């Protein structure tokens, strides 16, 4: 996944990464919001979910200390980062600023 992840975040469109864990209650609350955002942005941003327990090296590389942590990448660079549950409106606003 490490090599693929680097390619994905350097792709031709911004990438919203949802760092989550199966055991995380707030992550379960964030998941349907992410789905709503995905439907609203109509493919303008790629959205991927990274389970921190299955991808510890990626989580460590980006210093993910709590979940959920959302990071928006553009051209391989972090343009926005936030931990904790985010609303659909917050996410759409950030995405619109960066596409």
Provide an overview of this structure:
Helix 2 packs across helix 4. The protein has four helices and four strands; from the N terminus they run αβαβαββα. The model has no long low-confidence stretch (mean pLDDT 95). Strands 2-1-3-4 form a four-stranded mixed beta sheet. The chain is globular, with a radius of gyration of 12 Å. It starts with a helix and ends with a helix. The protein has 99 residues and is of the alpha+beta class.
Quick description:
The protein is of the alpha+beta class. The chain has helices at 2-9, 25-41, 56-61, 88-97; strands at 15-20, 46-51, 69-74, 77-83.
Features:
Thioredoxin_CS, 4 strands, Thioredoxin, electron transport, transport, alpha+beta, 25% strand, 99 residues, Thioredoxin-like_sf, four-stranded mixed β-sheet, globular, 4 helices
Give the overall shape: globular
The low-confidence runs, each spanning 5 or more residues with pLDDT under 50, are: none
Compute the CA-based radius of gyration. Answer: 12 Å
| Residue-averaged pLDDT | 95
Tally the beta strands.
4
Number of helices: 4
Straight-line distance between termini = 25 Å
Order of helices and strands: HEHEHEEH
Helix content: 40-55%
- How much β-strand is present in the residues? 25-35%
Give me the secondary-structure category. alpha+beta
Instruction: Please list the strands of the largest sheet in the order they lie side by side.
Output: 2-1-3-4
Described by strand count, sense and barrel closure, the largest sheet is: 4 strands, mixed
């Amino acid at each position: 996944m490490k090599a693929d992840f680097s390619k994905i975040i350097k792709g031709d469109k911004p990438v919203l990464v949802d760092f989550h864990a199966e055991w995380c209650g707030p992550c379960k609350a964030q998941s349907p919001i992410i789905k709503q955002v995905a439907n609203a942005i109509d493919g303008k941003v790629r959205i991927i979910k990274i389970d921190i327990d299955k991808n510890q090296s990626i989580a460590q590389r980006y210093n993910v200390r709590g979940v959920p942590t959302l990071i928006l990448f553009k051209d391989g660079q972090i343009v926005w980062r936030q931990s904790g549950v985010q609303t659909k409106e917050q996410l759409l606003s950030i995405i619109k600023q960066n596409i």
